[in-house]
Amino acid sequence: MSLVDRWPLPDHHALRDDLLAAWDRAGYHDLRHLEEVLDRLDVLAAAGVPFDRTLVALAAWFHDAVYDGADDDEERSARWAEDALPATRADEVARLVRMTVEHRPAGDDPAGAALSDADLGILAAPRWRYDAYVAGVRADFAHVGDDDFRAGRAAVLRDLVARAHLFSTSHARELWEDAARANLERELAGLSGR
């Protein structure tokens, strides 16, 4: 199924096309990333993870819609959602987009848990895909020097590794936790020269 057909609203096709154009860029945060997040949301929904599929799918479409390696990418993406979506959906979609800055949904936030898990699911990818993801992230931050990038990336990875769980839903933990931790440890070892 094409991304065009996965748009979660029956209308707002001009907005869908604007979002597709925004995601059509080099680096990791591209159309493939959007597709993979939507695929993982489908996996979670099929497993019975409870969340509002329309709202969370909209948040997936917006969560990295603005991405140029700046500190406020998610905030600008959230503001776009607030400006572009109907009022009945705008606030919740923007809240979910903002949650992806830290990927720490509250325990009583099934929508946030689903989006966070679907977004972080790349961490559990097979080695070839994980390595392509890492290369894509480096391309996203091409404007950052190598030493600064390595230091920043290592800090992000150490924060993730220190968490009791990478994933918020039990289904995602069962599917992806072990593989994700192995990938993170391998990348962190490479960054530290071990």
Descriptive notes:
The protein is an all-alpha fold. The protein is 65% helix and 0% strand. The protein contains 9 helices and no strands. α4 packs antiparallel against α5 and α8 packs antiparallel against α9. The longest helix has 22 residues.
SS element count, helices:
9
Oligomer: single chain
Pattern of helices and strands: HHHHHHHHH
Q: What is the helical fraction, as a range of percent?
A: 55-70%
- Low-confidence stretches at least 5 residues in length (pLDDT < 50)? none
In percent terms, what proportion of residues is strand? under 5%
The biggest sheet, with number of strands, parallel, antiparallel or mixed sense and barrel status, is: none
Indicate the overall shape.
globular
Specify the structural class. Answer: mainly alpha
The number of E-state strands comes to: 0
First-residue to last-residue Cα separation: 42 Å
Please state the average pLDDT score.
Answer: 95
Rg calculated over all Cα atoms: 16 Å
What keyword list fits this structure?
mainly alpha, 194 residues
Concise structural overview:
It is built from nine helices and no strands. The protein is an all-alpha fold and 194 residues long.
Sequence-ordered SSE layout with sheet pairings:
Blueprint: H1 13-23, H2 31-46, H3 53-63, H4 73-84, H5 87-99, H6 110-120, H7 127-140, H8 146-162, H9 170-191
Helix pairs in contact: 2-3, 2-6, 3-5, 3-6, 4-5, 8-9
